[in-house]
Amino acid sequence: MSERNTGLRAMKKRQTRQNISHHATRLFLERGFDKVTIADVAAAAQVAKMTVTNYFPRKEDLALDLREVFVELPAELVRGRGQGESALEALRRGFLDAVERRDAVLGFSGPPFARMITGSPALAARLREFHEDREHALAAVLAEETGAAADDLVPRLAAVQLVGVYRVLFDEALRRTIDGQGHDEVAAALEPAGRAAFDLLAPVLGDYARRG
């Protein structure tokens, strides 16, 4: 009975979070991010204002609700890389797989959402924090995987360059989306650009953190 209750509570929390996120996104797209308040979201979702802030402490996270996946993706790819695979090879593989899936984490979105992100200084600033958090997360995994000393700058330097590919091409995906390109057109541009970018880093980082 206790396990069942725990499962029901978890499901209820997921449903509440999804409900809040759904109504927030709708309001942001209709009115613009900066013109919508937390109180507006709470009223639309029919929950208390405190409930909204419990699930989303920052208003920006209502619009960018994939933070955890976004930040952890490169680190998880490196942590789960195969035998004989380097960090760069794992990240290249993950990037190309995500392009094939038209993954939102790479910037695949509709024009209204892309314009909302690029048109709001608050969202743009929050997105920069996501990119920085992603660099730190990858650097920590690289340090752990290579046994680097605490004061070794190499993992951080490598992370900045490797995640930089994702960062630049995320911006490119948004730009092309705003210009009216569909997912297939964006993917057709990102796939060769990603290959070229990782190839550019390969002479220096191609063997870095190779497993086994």
Automatic annotation (TrEMBL):
InterPro entries: Homeodomain-like_sf (IPR009057), HTH-type_TetR-like_transc_reg (IPR050109), HTH_TetR (IPR001647), MftR_C (IPR041347). Gene3D superfamilies: Homeodomain-like (1.10.10.60), Tetracycline Repressor, domain 2 (1.10.357.10). Residues 37-56 bind DNA. The keyword Oxidoreductase does not apply. PROSITE patterns: HTH_TETR_2 (PS50977). PANTHER family: HTH-TYPE TRANSCRIPTIONAL REGULATOR BETI, HTH-TYPE TRANSCRIPTIONAL REGULATOR RUTR. This is TetR/AcrR family transcriptional regulator. It comes from Actinomadura yumaensis.
